Amino acid sequence: CGKTTTLRDIARQINLRVVIVDTRGEIAKGDVGQMTDVLFSIPKEKGIQIAIKTLYPELIIFDEISTEKEAKAVIEGFNCGVPVITTMHAGSYDELKERKVFKELYKTGAINNIFYVNKGKCLKI
């Protein structure tokens, strides 16, 4: 259960207009589905803004949220009605809860579901 592979599978299988912001060209290496636009090699926060303003997605997917700029863009999308699926690295759920970016997203209500992946197991928290 790899994080990037899971994101790719979601994009391919979900029946929504999806935009993938793929800064390193990892998510869109394989089949991401016919209803998917991919933005390559741009900062995630910029890609989220472009997607919201010009591509009219029903869902935005990107890998590894880590900065306050990215969190702000996710919150902007959330406030426009565009959900995001992303990943965040943490050694444990307790560590995740202490990250500033996570706290910011959680307090705004932009986080609805959390899945913890560890040693090939994927658990909903």
Set down the secondary structure blueprint.
Elements: H1 3-13, E1 18-22, E2 36-40, H2 44-55, E3 59-62, H3 68-79, E4 84-85, H4 93-98, H5 100-108, E5 115-118, E6 121-124
Parallel strand pairs: 1-2, 1-3, 3-4
Antiparallel strand pairs: 5-6
Helix pairs in contact: 2-3, 3-5
List the keywords.
125 residues; alpha/beta; four-stranded parallel sheet; two-stranded antiparallel ribbon; 5 helices
User: Can you give the helix content as a percent range?
Assistant: 40-55%
**Mean of the pLDDT scores?**
92
Query: What is the count of β-strands?
Result: 6
Spatial sequence of strands, sheet with the most strands: 2-1-3-4
| General form | globular
Q: Which residue ranges are poorly predicted, with pLDDT under 50 across at least 5 consecutive positions?
A: none
What quaternary form is this? single chain
Beta-strand content: 15-25%
Which radius of gyration do the C-alpha atoms yield? 14 Å
Characterize the biggest β-sheet: 4 strands, parallel
Order of helices and strands: HEEHEHEHHEE
| Structural class computed from helices and strand pairing | alpha/beta
Could you give the distance between the termini? Answer: 16 Å
User: With helices defined by DSSP (H or I, 4 residues minimum), what is the helix count?
Assistant: 5
How would you portray this structure in words?
The structure is a single chain. The protein is α/β, with parallel strands linked by helices. The protein is built from five helices and six strands; from the N terminus they run αββαβαβααββ. It has a four-stranded parallel sheet, sandwiched between helices. The chain has a two-stranded antiparallel sheet with strand order 5-6. Helix 2 (44-55) packs parallel to helix 3 and helix 3 (68-79) packs parallel to helix 5. The two termini are 16 Å apart.
